[in-house]
């Protein structure tokens, strides 16, 4: 193997890693925003991804709607789902110990998986790609990048830019940051904390729908448990980058995707998950609050 | 009776729990001897024992030591693989089944304790959700490693390989661990309900004696206030590591018990979902409450089986029950609603428990 093909191989893996990492980053954003504001690990997030993917699948395959409408529809359904879950299951537990909320989130996750299994059976559905098939070829055909990969990365960048603008510059975004810093003080300043938490769930769930569609376009087998493993990985990514931090979720997601693809290509496919988690452990041991997380000093 | 009243509360709780388990065991044994309990429940007896031990051991980490662990099934996995590989390897050397089971369980517990100790050293430096995610990560790593491990034994001794099966066993050799295929119990399934009962009792005795000892009070002190505990000279790492290792050893023993009751099992059996399942037992039973864990583990293992008449809907019902129980026990609004019903329309006097908790902050 000569040097240029080695370099091209590296580049190819890097792009694939960025694409997978973009999906993780979009999911991790949902985790991290909800954690930042409600201080809870929303384990049902991975299953919202799955619901989003199913909605899009039926919109495109069964009703023959164009992919854009399918994505918008799944975003709307997931947003509504996120708000309903928050209202029914999490809102009554605002004051409860965090473990009780965690178990409730797990209950919601079981509920969504089993409801999906009843409604749509467990036989895998072949997801139609929402992006036209085809490749962009570079370097005289030595490097080909699928359109889906490009679209995934671009979508992730757009989402990141919009979210950054939203949280930094809009009134709602400021309210969100205020709530995540100190709920009591935010309430005293006239911020509707409950509405803000609902909106956070809505945004997180809409992002989950987008992630679900992109994920299933890349790995087209859709089952009721499709969302679990990417959910766990994205959760890992959120912690990796520093949970509660939006740029951290992006960084964590991208790094996780790249490490996974590289470990799979150069070391062993079977061991890629173990390597991803191993790197996570090492990073957390060196930086116990994640890459971009703030270290909170304990006061005595 | 007067003697019982003079006992310390902790002693009374532990005796109540022992009594609960012994009475349940006797009732089931009598029923099995006379009318029978049905094949469904019969098949669940050993798993229930294993899950009780898992719940009690996880309660030691989550309830007593106050650290959220999401990878407890990993230790169960280590125990199951190590213990059952040992049991299969010894089938010609140790003909007595109970003795073989005891050796297997001890070996499984030892290996899991070793894993717990090694993992605990780095993990326990972290706290809160970061600790939780690292235990999750270790659980997944253990699963991946065991899925890719091949170990066999023949006349030439032990052979092991990783990722690709290169073990070349001579005639009469036994493949102990077969990568993604897991472990097949070539010898008869040696776990029994009596062994399960004894293991539950041992686990309870170990945990109660640890909790009510000087070490146990130190562990609870580090949970309640790490800084205050450190300032009175308690080594936080040492005591947290002690709780973590004991918990891992018990989980390993439970794993061996479970593994030796199955014809075959693979590492995928002990994944993240199993860890979560056991955490659900612990939280539903009450943090730090051992008899709660025993009851929750039993009830929630039987519940999906008892719901078989709903066939497809059973897991959905299970999920709804789980959510409703969490809401009913933790939501102040719903709890006061129930209290009002119980007290016959009267409003509860004094601030509610959650309000008191807020005030205490």
| CATH architecture type of the largest domain in chain B | Orthogonal Bundle
What is the residue-averaged pLDDT of chain A? 87
Rg from Cα of chain B: 22 Å
Specify which chain pair forms the largest interface. Answer: A-B, 46 and 49 residues
Q: What is the 3D shape of chain B?
A: globular
Strand order of the largest sheet of chain A: 1-4
Query: Strand percentage of chain B, roughly?
Result: 5-15%
- H/E element sequence of chain A: HHHHEEEHHHHEHHH
Biggest sheet architecture of chain A:
2 strands, antiparallel
Q: Please tally the β strands of chain B and state the result.
A: 5
**Which geometry of chain A do the CA atoms define?**
globular
Number of helices in the DSSP assignment of chain B: 15
Descriptive notes:
The complex is a heterodimer of chains A (300) and B (361). Helices cover 73% and strands 4% of the residues of chain A. Chain A has 300 residues and is mainly alpha-helical. The mean pLDDT of chain A is 87. Chain B is mainly alpha-helical and 361 residues long. In chain B, α2 (9-33) packs antiparallel against α7 (193-211) and α8 crosses α10 (236-259). The chains are: A mainly alpha (300), B mainly alpha (361).
């Amino acid at each position: 193997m000569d040097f240029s093909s080695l370099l091209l191989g590296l580049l190819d893996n890097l792009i694939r890693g960025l694409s997978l990492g973009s999906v993780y980053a979009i999911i991790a954003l949902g985790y991290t925003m909800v954690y930042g504001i409600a201080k809870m690990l929303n384990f049902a997030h991975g299953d919202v991804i799955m619901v989003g993917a199913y909605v899009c699948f039926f919109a495109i395959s069964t009703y023959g709607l164009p992919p854009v409408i399918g994505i918008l529809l799944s975003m709307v359904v997931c947003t509504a789902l996120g708000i309903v879950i928050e209202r029914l299951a999490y809102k009554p537990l605002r004051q409860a110990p965090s473990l009780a909320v965690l178990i409730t989130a797990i209950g919601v996750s079981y509920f969504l998986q089993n409801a999906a299994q009843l409604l749509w059976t467990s036989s895998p559905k072949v997801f139609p790609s929402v992006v036209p098939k085809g490749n962009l070829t570079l370097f005289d055909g030595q490097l080909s990048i699928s359109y889906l990969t490009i679209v995934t990365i671009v979508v992730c960048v757009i989402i990141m830019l919009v979210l950054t603008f939203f949280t930094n510059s809009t009134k709602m975004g400021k309210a969100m940051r205020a709530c995540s810093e100190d709920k009591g003080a935010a309430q005293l300043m006239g911020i509707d904390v409950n509405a803000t938490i609902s909106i956070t769930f809505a945004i997180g769930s809409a992002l989950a729908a987008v992630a679900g569609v992109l994920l299933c376009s890349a790995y087209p087998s859709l089952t009721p448990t499709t969302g679990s493993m990417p959910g766990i990985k994205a959760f890992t990514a959120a912690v990796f980058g520093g949970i509660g931090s939006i740029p951290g979720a992006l960084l964590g997601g991208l790094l996780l995707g790249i490490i996974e693809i590289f470990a799979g290509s150069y070391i062993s496919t079977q061991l890629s998950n173990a390597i991803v988690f191993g790197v996570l452990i090492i990073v957390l041991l060196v930086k116990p609050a994640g890459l971009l997380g703030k270290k909170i000093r304990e006061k005595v | 009776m007067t003697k019982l009243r003079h006992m310390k509360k902790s002693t009374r709780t532990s005796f109540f729990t022992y009594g609960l388990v012994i009475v349940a065991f006797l009732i089931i044994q009598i029923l099995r001897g006379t009318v029978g309990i049905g094949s469904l429940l019969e098949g669940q007896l050993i798993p229930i024992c294993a899950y009780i031990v898992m719940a009690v051991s996880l309660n030691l980490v989550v309830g007593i030591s106050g650290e959220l662990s999401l990878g407890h099934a990993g230790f169960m996995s280590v125990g199951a693989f190590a213990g059952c590989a040992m049991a299969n390897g010894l089938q010609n050397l140790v003909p007595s089944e109970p003795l073989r089971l005891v050796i297997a369980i001890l070996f499984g517990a030892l290996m899991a304790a070793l894993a717990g100790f090694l993992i605990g050293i780095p993990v326990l430096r972290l706290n809160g959700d970061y600790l939780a995610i690292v235990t999750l990560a270790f659980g997944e790593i253990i699963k991946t490693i065991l899925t890719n491990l091949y170990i066999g034994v023949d006349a030439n001794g032990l052979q092991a390989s990783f990722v690709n099966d290169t073990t070349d066993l001579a005639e009469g050799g036994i493949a102990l661990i077969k990568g993604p295929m897991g472990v097949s119990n070539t010898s008869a399934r040696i776990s029994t309900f009596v062994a399960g009962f004894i293991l539950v009792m041992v686990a309870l005795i170990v945990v109660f004696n640890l909790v009510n000892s000087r070490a146990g009070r130190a562990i609870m002190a580090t949970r309640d206030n790490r800084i205050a505990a450190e300032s009175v000279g308690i080594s936080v790492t040492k005591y947290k590591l002690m709780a973590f290792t004991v918990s891992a050893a018990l989980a390993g023993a439970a794993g061996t018990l479970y593994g030796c009751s199955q014809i075959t099992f693979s590492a995928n059996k002990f994944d993240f979902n199993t860890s979560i399942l056991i955490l659900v037992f612990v939280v539903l039973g009450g943090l730090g409450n051992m008899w709660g864990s025993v009851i929750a583990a039993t009830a929630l293992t039987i519940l999906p089986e008892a719901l078989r008449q709903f066939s497809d809907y059973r897991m959905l019902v299970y999920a709804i029950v789980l959510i409703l129980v969490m809401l009913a026990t933790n939501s102040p609004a719903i709890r006061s609603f129930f209290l009002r019903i119980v007290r016959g329309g009267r409003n509860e006097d004094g601030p509610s428990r959650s309000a008191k908790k807020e005030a205490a902050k």
